[in-house]
Amino acid sequence: xxxxxxxxxxxxxxxxxxxxxxxxxxxxxxxxxxxxxxxxxxxxxxxxxxxxxxxxxxxxxxxxxxxxxxxxxxxxxxxxxxxxxxxxxxxxxxxxxxxxxxxxxxxxxxxxxxxxxxxxxxxxxxxxxxxxxxxxxxxxxxxxxxxxxxxxxxxxxxxxxxxxxxxxxxxxxxxxxxxxxxxxxxxxxxxxxxxxxxxxxxxxxxxxxxxxxxxxxxxxxxxxxxxxxxxxxxxxxxxxxxxxxxxxxxxxxxxxxxxxxxxxxxxxxxxxxxxxxxxxxxxxxxxxxxxxxxxxxxxxxxxxxxxxxxxxxxxxxxxxxxxxxxxxxxxxxxxxxxxxxxxxxxxxxxxxxxxxxxxxxxxxxxxxxxxxxxxxxxxxxxxxxxxxxxxxxxxxxxxxxxxxxxxxxxxxxxxxxxxxxxxxxxxxxxxxxxxxxxxxxxxxxxxxxxxxxxxxxxxxxxxxxxxxxxxxxxxxxxxxxxxxxxxxxxxxxxxxxxxxxxxxxxxxxxxxxxxxxxxxxxxxxxxxxxxxxxxxxxxxxxxxxxxxxxxxxxxxxxxxxxxxxxxxxxxxxxxxxxxxxxxxxxxxxxxxxxxxxxxxxxxxxxxxxxxxxxxxxxxxxxxxxxxxxxxxxxxxxxxxxxxxxxxxxxxxxxxxxxxxxxxxxxxxxxxxxxxxxxxxxxxxxxxxxxxxxxxxxxxxxxxxxxxxxxxxxxxxxxxxxxxxxxxxxxxxxxxxxxxxxx
Length: 742
What we know:
Elements: H1 5-13, E1 16-28, E2 34-40, E3 56-62, E4 71-80, E5 86-96, H2 101-108, H3 118-128, H4 132-138, H5 151-174, H6 181-191, H7 193-202, H8 206-210, H9 216-225, H10 233-249, E6 255-256, H11 257-269, H12 279-291, E7 296-297, E8 302-304, H13 306-324, H14 334-345, H15 351-358, E9 365-370, H16 376-390, E10 396-400, H17 403-413, E11 417-419, H18 420-423, E12 426-428, E13 434-436, E14 448-451, H19 459-467, E15 474-479, H20 492-498, E16 504-507, H21 518-527, E17 539-543, H22 549-564, E18 570-574, H23 584-595, E19 604-607, E20 609-612, E21 616-619, E22 633-640, E23 645-650, E24 655-659, E25 666-668, E26 671-673, E27 682-689, H24 699-706, E28 709-717, H25 719-727, H26 738-741
Parallel strand pairs: 3-5, 9-15, 9-16, 10-11, 10-14, 14-15, 17-28, 18-26, 18-27, 27-28
Antiparallel strand pairs: 1-2, 1-4, 2-3, 4-5, 6-8, 7-8, 12-13, 19-20, 21-22, 21-25, 22-23, 23-24
Helix pairs in contact: 2-3, 5-6, 5-7, 6-7, 10-11, 10-12, 11-12, 13-19, 14-16, 15-16, 21-24, 22-23, 24-25
């Protein structure tokens, strides 16, 4: 019987309850638990039923686990989309026990119970009938009466049931805090399903220490739900650690004591729990943490997280060891070696280039810094050739912070080059931790190590690297001190140079020829604060109103991509990640819709944003198991929506599979931040320059962005913003004491 329009309108408004049996999972996001499923039930109105499946409806909701055969009591409302398709939006639900033996067999074989297929499920139900679930829960050893079920298998079935029960309880408790399903499963595994909720109620802030990806804000929301006080010691401790970690992400290795207290107070009073937190309470907890070795407070009242303190101290100690060792004695006269190379390669080294090459005979550690076009690559090749000539059979290791920078080194020298992470042989352990196979006990097997793009190296990576360097190894660090500092904590290259203890060769002469690109010329001008830039085919400025910048970026991207036909070699770089129309997130949406639009025939998978086949992506965190690292770029080659997997070809041609709950490690990469682009080069770089970005407009930011381009720079916006950036040489001070420790 057809329902009246009035009754349909009423059912859409009214929250109702239904009992349904899950028929099929149509789509599921394991990361969020969001699920679309088809279900059967007795009270499903005719107008919402599928013509192909009478008596069935579609439900949409969040479920920690769901499988065919499960019986649910669901509460929610009917919804109709723009294509006139009906579904039931589930607001609340509870699982109910199967009401028939056939339903019980379907439930047991649904995949929720490890090792139970249809055949085993039928045998269990035939033996125990409708008492089956009670047997599994309270007397699982009885299952061994059934052929093929050992005691071990019976316990697996019991644990699966118990795990599902505890997980359901945990999911319901944590659901309001928008914690992804995968994280809730991890919480259950780490704390033990039965004890998890109890531990969280006792100290929600333990989640910050124990579960990667759960930070202070989420823990604070949970704490508020359990009526924790604003000055709870656990809360203050978590606030201190969160503040120091946040400041480390801004580049600070430590904070002065008063700054640490003030910033922590801001964190706590800006949290989810209302109420003032006195500075004296924070000071007391800081000293307690220092006594418990959870913090390090130095005599000058610098406050460190232990890992940053240990890194700074160990790095400075190893540098002193390298500098104290006498370098190897070269077999041949250095001037003769240089002259021989000049004749062989038909080049003439500039005085500074000769100085750099000559320096390797007098020290075990050398820094070479200079901008594009100053001959850094020529020097690296010269050092390698002379070292090989003087020490035949010696081992040389080349490395850089990113894959693209390592690839450039390899192409320039003809020798193998690796990322620093690969050189150190980072490996995940079975406990989910990360260890370096190369360390003080198993050092890097090399007599000479050359690190390029050294300005990108942060204190944690630098300290880990130095542990794997023997004291008699020669270390040459090459970089551009005028670029942005590392994304991570510290200003390693700057500190090494300013320490005054390490020999430094500064390359400040550009080898300008008729074919010298305007990119190199303008990079030098920007570095000197000169705003009168040279424009032409390889360096373009498009004057445009603020509101039109995104559309012009899109047009330029499209034109350059059509010309080059290589998605890796056209890159949009922008100062901001969010907040503005020409920030990374908005530009990525715009460029994706234009370059790789939605297509019903093209599979798509969602995690924070839609990912489609052929999308350009960037890795946003180090994944040691897959050996892909922060900043690596790739292309999605295929998506399997049934299995929830994505196959990505990285730009080194290696293929990597990501599962659905790992996609939060990826972002679209048609546009990336200038910080993320460090260590990479592209044929064409497109840069929006806007006063909307005023807070980010600094000389080193513009300098870094244009020096990412090999062949062409396109700036879009207004020249006032560009001039402002070039003349703004204020660099935010980073709290670091590496130079003082050397």
